Amino acid sequence: MLAATGEGSVDTGDPGVGTRAGLATATHDKPAQSGFRARAGLWRKRGGTERARPRLDLLSGFLTSTLKLFIVGEFDRQEDDIHLVTLCVTELNDREENEKHFPIIYGIAVNIKTAEIYRASFPDRGPEEELRAARALTGGPMISIYDAKTEQLRIGPYSWMPFPHVDFWLQQDDKQILENLSTSPLAEPPHFVEHIRSTLMFLKKHPSPTNALFPGNKALLYKKNEDGLWEKIPSPGS
User: Where are the residues of the annotated region Disordered (predicted)?
Assistant: First the structure.
């Protein structure tokens, strides 16, 4: 899921294990069952002040109708008058092949200057991929790791319990890993099993986060350099 505003974008799902995002061609201003307040206009006044209207783009691969309505309902309960621009979930991002379901599109990107959303794939999934994936595989919830105001990635500090039977899973073949460690084994991208094995190896080496992963129990910070590459920067007070 990705939400974009006039100031930047917020990735509400850490790009780790088992996450899905997609974009179909359909956009909806008002889902019939949600009562979502999606009135026209980019600006509104509150208390005599003019402010930008928050924009919401909701995108996902496999998302149940119940969860879809729950998420939209949560935004409907917010005090802000949110503009739902894109709703691309469930059947809107689904294709069927031999009676099996697959997302139409697996990945998207957003231009935070123009708010344009377009199809994308990511061979490089960002800094500390194994560390972030380890947190997700051990049950960590979806989180935002990007701060649009500082233009920094903030990773951790995290904590997790040792992954059960990690040696057993590392001995399994690709088919067993795919069928048992994926919620949608038929629809996974080609790199999925390799990614899981790499994450399991990381968890074996680091059964629980230590000072070696997060020195001084501080977050790991990254910011893009002039070449557009993520570069590690010192944490405050380090």
Answer: 1-31
